[in-house]
Amino acid sequence: MFLGAAFIAAIATVQGCSTQAPSAPATVAAAIPNAKPTPTGAPLGTHAPYAITAGLDGNLWFTEYQGDGIGQMTPYGATKRFQIDPDGFAERITAGPDGAVWFTDAVGNRIGRVESDGKIAYVKLPHPESGPAGITTGPDENLWFTEHSGNRIGRLTTTGTLTEINLPEGAGPAEIVTGSDGNLWFAEDKANRIARVTIAGNVREFAIMVPDSRPAMMTLGADGDIWFTQPQANKIGRITPAGEITEYSLPAAGVPLGIAAGPDKNIWVTVIRAQLIYRVTPKGDFTALPMPDNSMATFITAGPDGMLWFTEPNGKVGKISTAGDVKEYVFSTPYKETN
Fold this sequence. Notes:
3% of the residues lie in helices and 44% in strands. The chain is mainly beta. Strand 8 and strand 9 form a beta hairpin. The two termini are 35 Å apart.
């Protein structure tokens, strides 16, 4: 499963948790019964919020690090938790074209779907240990996802029809996003490349000049370019639809991880271990926005309220305004807002 060694180490430092990822179960059911959401304000337990996305319902949705739940949060901080199959692991998450939220499950070797009422179902992948990682909605209104271990790109209709595209050996596809050119773009963290796949399944790869930079998270910028993080190189990069790559070194070390395009047409980057978020202009100018004490932003997404929302391994979800003002929501009974 693609998590990133630097991220796991940082999470372990903050949480004091094990860095060993769950192993795949021997058998996994194709689907589980409807799940009941935890009432608003109830605790989410000890599992840390992980990947995050904005749903079509106007709420934020997130997975749990080493947990067995999907969290939902309103822009005002009210929460619900949906129990998923405990033999699985929800890794990345995206808003689907059908109004549901879809996620990858590398442990269960499947793609999951959760509705706002808590109904959960899975689509099992045909090849064992495919390692589904990144997932996004494509321009054709299908779900597109990477198979990090299987070295494939998958396309899944909302009715469950699956198509897989083989990649060159050793690619290691990780995150995937839709580009401004109507193609899908994905990071190959093993091969140190950014790649493009058309709706028809044609693949082209573009090498990153800095060796072993391990491209990770990606976002489509307002400039039409794809921006991505390079945790091992302490850089972020951008690639044009024509394949031209530009890289920018972070002013401070600290492992760039999450990245999102903001409503202000800037790029927002979380830097784990440095306790800050960078706001980056399309020209590559950086502004450091410090986080509160004992906070560490990891994954980040643009919210429905004009804010950037991010997850933290200490059991919080936060939001930051384009001016740099931060609010955090701690999961307790009832939930409370800090700052």
